[in-house]
Specification:
Elements (H helix, E strand, L loop, with lengths): L1 H18 L10 H8 L3 H8 L3 H9 L5 H9 L13 E2 L9 H8 L5 H10 L3 E3 L4 E4 L11 H23 L20 H23 L27 H13 L1
């Protein structure tokens, strides 16, 4: 947000100075814009040298939790002897690897509980029953249309397509892929249903992760076969006939 606001301040200041009759011929300097906005002239120079859409992509492409997750998945103190990320206690003594220590280092000013809420929402970590945290992804799920989010969406689409194609080719050894159609749902209940599905699905996935994820031992030589479960719901567009019927019911009421 701070990066975006700086860019807006500088852009508006440059526009305002350009409208001034005394500065139309000469381009406003970085120093003058800096004095007008309170943004240091070095930042002004960087902002003016970057196109607005590129500035926004830089912000969208980063998340303050990415550095934390990257350190957790690569730095020695946070890895087991088999080089897999440890399950970390939320808090620990000074000098002992803990999630709180990672937050203090890579998300300064953020409480561990806030970081847990934020990273759980993106599916990057899992909160275990014994006040410990498990790493599930080395990067935060990016929102909006950007290169990272498009790549993540493409990966999910590829996995779903692989499941469906496998079932077409091997009907006798199909992978699980079932759909339940919920008809005639009152539109006013949709927000509550979304929340219910999200909470129950997250609980289901957490139970699966606890049940089937085994800690690798020091003599493990194979990281195992990649395996995953994806849960999603869909909202299909209404047909024109159903929209007309709904409108008629509203008009009659």
């Amino acid at each position: 947000m701070e990066r975006i606001l700086r860019g807006v301040f500088v852009d508006r200041a440059e526009f305002a100075l350009a409208q001034n009759s005394t500065t139309r011929k000469a381009k406003a300097s970085d120093l003058k814009i800096g004095l007008m906005t309170g943004v240091h002239r070095n930042f002004v120079n960087q902002i003016r040298a970057t196109r607005p859409h590129a500035r926004l992509q830089q912000v969208q492409g980063r998340h303050r939790g990415d550095a934390l997750l990257g350190a957790w998945s690569t730095e020695g103190p946070y890895l087991t002897s088999a080089a897999s990320p440890r399950d970390l206690p939320i808090k620990g003594p000074e000098g002992v690897p803990s999630f709180g220590a990672l937050v203090s280092r890579y998300m300064p000013g953020v409480r561990p509980s806030t970081a847990i809420t934020e990273l759980r929402r993106s599916g990057a970590i899992q909160l275990l029953p014994d006040e410990r945290v498990r790493l599930r992804s080395s990067s935060v799920g990016h929102r909006g249309i950007s290169a990272p989010s498009v790549a993540a969406a493409g990966s999910k689409l590829s996995r779903l397509a692989r499941n469906l194609m496998h079932n077409l080719r091997s009907a006798d050894q199909s992978w699980f892929c079932k759909t339940v159609e919920l008809r005639s749902i009152d539109e006013r209940r949709i927000p509550m249903i979304r929340q219910t599905i999200a909470k129950r699905s997250q609980s289901f996935l957490d139970v699966l992760a606890n049940e089937f994820t085994e800690e690798q031992t020091s003599n493990a030589v194979d990281a195992g076969m990649p395996f995953g479960v994806t849960v999603f719901y869909h909202e299909d567009p209404k047909s024109s006939s159903s929209k007309g019927a709904l409108q008629r019911r509203r008009n009659n009421s």
